[in-house]
Amino acid sequence: MNRRAFNRCLLPVLLGGAAVLAAVPAAQAADFPSHSIELVVPFAAGGGTDAMARAMSDASRAHLPEPIVVLNKPGAAGGIGLTEVANSKPDGYKLALVTADMVIIPHLGLTKTTYEKFTPIIQLNADPSAITVAADSPYNTIEEFLDAARAKPEMMQVGNAGIGSIWHLAAAALEDKTGAKFNHIPFNGGNPAVLALLGGHIDAVAVSPAEVIQYVKAGKLKTLAVMADQRVAGFENVPTLKERNIDLSIGTWRGIAAPQGTPQPVLDTLGAAFRKAAAEDSLKKFMAEQNLGYVVADQRAFTALMERDNATFKSLIEKFGMRQ
């Protein structure tokens, strides 16, 4: 048999083999899921992110034939868990509960795992930053607060959840927009910062409304402005920065993402199930009880948010020299 005849005989075999290989992922996607799905939370158990992951897992039971198992993989400000998921097989069986930290910590030098190594599935939450002071503070408006910070640069002590945290970046962004200069005081989380404010040790905090709402309702703290596009539930009398002619909207978010390369049919299955789970009354009740902003966005919108925030935080971290 000459070479040309041999190639003619071999070609159908090769094409048939390629068709079989291409059919394997398609068949796997059609059977998805055939066993439990791991949802990695890159933080310790017991926090708000962990609680939301577990609430979402419970709400998903009615919409997926297999359970979602929540696993906590803390460390490196979320970098360890995110890296594990990013390097896992992209088959839909290992997902990540992602937060705004995923577009912050690479620029801080804490991980090489960037948001581009994931495909977003669904956004579930968004919480803006807010400037909150003690109830007896002399500042009753955001303008008075900023004027005082400009008058005495770096004397206004503003607490945050740690160097390079979303709330540190929010306060830095406010400086950048207004010309104010704060003395940034880092704490090991938003709650310790709020407790320091209650104790009179600092002048203000830049944390989410959810982290101060109980003290605002109790008359111990007052929020001067929220860094959101619209006023926040529970803070209807508090203006946004944009209402005060400061074009700044910044905050944190949470959602679910898969490793890059996950087949689109698998992503579609997960996305449809998660949208139904997000509409469950049990999840909405949980979000309301935890004072978490309930925002549902699909793959395309969530990707756009990540791209926007990645550019914003990269610029702020470089400008303020926060890289560790």
Automatic annotation (TrEMBL):
Source domain of life is: Bacteria
Q: Which residues form the signal peptide?
A: 1-29
Question: What InterPro entries does the record tag this protein with?
Answer: BUG, Bug_dom1
Under the heading SUPFAM superfamilies, the entry gives: Periplasmic binding protein-like II (SSF53850)
| Keywords tagged on the record | Signal
For whether the record's keyword set contains Magnesium, the answer is: no
Q: Describe the family membership recorded for this protein in Swiss-Prot or TrEMBL.
A: Belongs to the UPF0065 (bug) family.
Q: Which PANTHER family match?
A: BLR1237 PROTEIN, TRICARBOXYLATE-BINDING PROTEIN
Name of the protein in its database record: ABC transporter substrate-binding protein
Q: Which organism is it from?
A: Bordetella genomosp. 2
The beginning of the lineage is: Bacteria, Pseudomonadati, Pseudomonadota, Betaproteobacteria, Burkholderiales
